[in-house]
Amino acid sequence: MAHMKKALLVTLTATFLTAPAFAADVKVAMVARPVTSFGYLDTDKDSRLTPSEAKADWAVAQGFQRADANQDGVLDRDEFATLQKG
Questions:
Q1: Which residue in 80, 85, 39, 30 sits closest to 59, CA to CA?
Q2: Does the reported pTM lie above 0.90?
């Protein structure tokens, strides 16, 4: 019985120690690249993404200003593609 408790304690400790590292990796992946397609985000189908449309994908919203190369307040397909590349 003591052996099982020790094994359980070791397993739980290892799980809790590695969980934060895994969570950090997931957050980095979310920041790096959009997961939603341009067509899905472009809800009004005008071939431009507004900041409001970009909010549907966290990574697009976070990188919107950086990706807006011509600073016109919207992302076209080329600017979105650049954002996807990271």
A1: 30
A2: no
